[in-house]
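Supplementary Methods. Inverse-folding protocol.

Structures were first reduced to a discrete structure-token string of length 116. This string, shown here, constituted the complete conditioning input.
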């Protein structure tokens, strides 16, 4: 079965950096686009970044463009989210996601908290 396990969250000060990881199993990792979403308290889950399966093209939400970088290591079945210049508004639970046969799969999430 599909499993996604996020790690790397934590508490960081304004302007700091964190690197999130998401390890996938139960599917052919290299064949799927990978996404990072986040959900802040009281808000809807929002798409943060996407990386395609073959070309590795990336796309970002305007709110994180220039600060976050998504990457993948298909040999390790892992997708990363490097987050720099963090702001308090980046505080959220971050989830990785794949869409397979029109079904969304999610990890358990990792909490990121940015203090001002």
């Amino acid at each position: 079965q599909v499993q996604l396990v996020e790690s790397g969250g934590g508490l960081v000060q304004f302007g700091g950096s964190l690197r999130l990881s998401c390890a996938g199993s139960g599917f052919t990792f290299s064949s799927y686009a990978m996404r990072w979403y986040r959900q802040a308290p009281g808000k809807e889950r929002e798409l943060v970044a996407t990386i395609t399966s073959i070309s590795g093209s990336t796309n970002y939400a305007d709110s994180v463009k220039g600060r976050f970088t998504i990457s993948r290591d298909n040999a390790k079945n892992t997708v990363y989210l490097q987050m720099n210049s963090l702001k308090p508004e980046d505080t959220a639970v971050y989830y990785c996601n794949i869409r397979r046969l029109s079904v969304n799969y999610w990890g358990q999430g990792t909490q990121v908290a940015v203090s001002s």
